[in-house]
Amino acid sequence: MMLKNDLFLRAARGEATERTPVWLMRQAGRILPEYRALRARLSGFKELVETPELAAEVTIQPIDALDVDAAIIFSDILVVPDAMGLPYEMVEARGPLFPEVIKSAADVDKLRIPEPEEGLGYVLEALRITKKALNGRVPLIGFAGAPFTILAYMVEGHGSKTFSKARAMLYREPALAHRLLEKITLTTIAYLQAQVTAGAQVVQVFDSWAGILPPAQYTEFSARYIARICEALAPLVPVTVFAKGAWWAVPEFAAMPCRTIGLDWNQDAAQVRAQAGDKTLQGNLDPCALYGTPEQVKTATEAMLRQFAGGPHIANLGHGVYPDTNPDNVRVFVETVKAWRG
């Protein structure tokens, strides 16, 4: 199927584009009234994620409402441990919660490496439905969490400022941590390959908790596993790595076969460009900039775009859009990027 708008896909391949493509992390969701209306009819977040027709509907909503250049499948990184045999709950106003956590070698042994269609078929079906419904309007992004970020939740049991239990495992039982990371990595590779088969044209690896590790541990317990995912997926589609807070890891990402490096809002675009060579860069407007006036949003967006001049760029935020953001300001961000010819 021919894409009517292939700007994002071309930029993700490192090709020249007539303007900078734009999309937002977490664009499918909480900022849109149409999402809130749909969510209010359901039992909760997991019902939405696990119902392919509804996940597809929510994936497409920002294409209609915000006119962004790419769709990202509506799902969650925690579907992977769920499929491996460690179920999670999504607690309103608190976030994810694992009733059981990984504490021992016996717990790791019990985890399975599922066949993607068996354990994660609902995500793959959502991708297939979305791809058909998009009908070539924009490219479709698939994603998964980086193995360390998944381990952090599986060991800690919930979100945390420190993830001290998960980090303690790296010091006290590094071999056990590597066994768990190995299982997560094999599951993730098969899952992302299946996403590509189901219709994903780019995949993004989210290392949400990368910044809590010191550099040497990041190399040992995270980057090496991300590299394996990139090596397995790069022959199929362009791969984006987004590691929040791990600014010092850019040279490691530059050596991987990922095509795009995502930047959080604390990173300097020129510095990353110097370290990353010909990689495409993605980001990195501060999500809080969208709380400003429309004129402030426009000014901040143009300042960001100037910083990324000189190489391939995909405009985005430096993290996911915050749920109380005014959708009109998001539209100002999108329209400013589209009008930019710097």
Automatic annotation (TrEMBL):
Compartments (UniProt record): Cytoplasm
EC assignment: 4.1.1.37
Superkingdom of origin: Bacteria
Enzyme category, top tier: lyase
Positions bearing the site annotation: Transition state stabilizer: D76
Broad class of where this protein is predominantly found: cytoplasm
Record GO terms (molecular function): uroporphyrinogen decarboxylase activity
Annotated function: Catalyzes the decarboxylation of four acetate groups of uroporphyrinogen-III to yield coproporphyrinogen-III.
Family matches, as NCBIfam families: hemE (TIGR01464)
HAMAP family on file: URO_D
Protein name as catalogued: Uroporphyrinogen decarboxylase
Source organism: Hymenobacter negativus
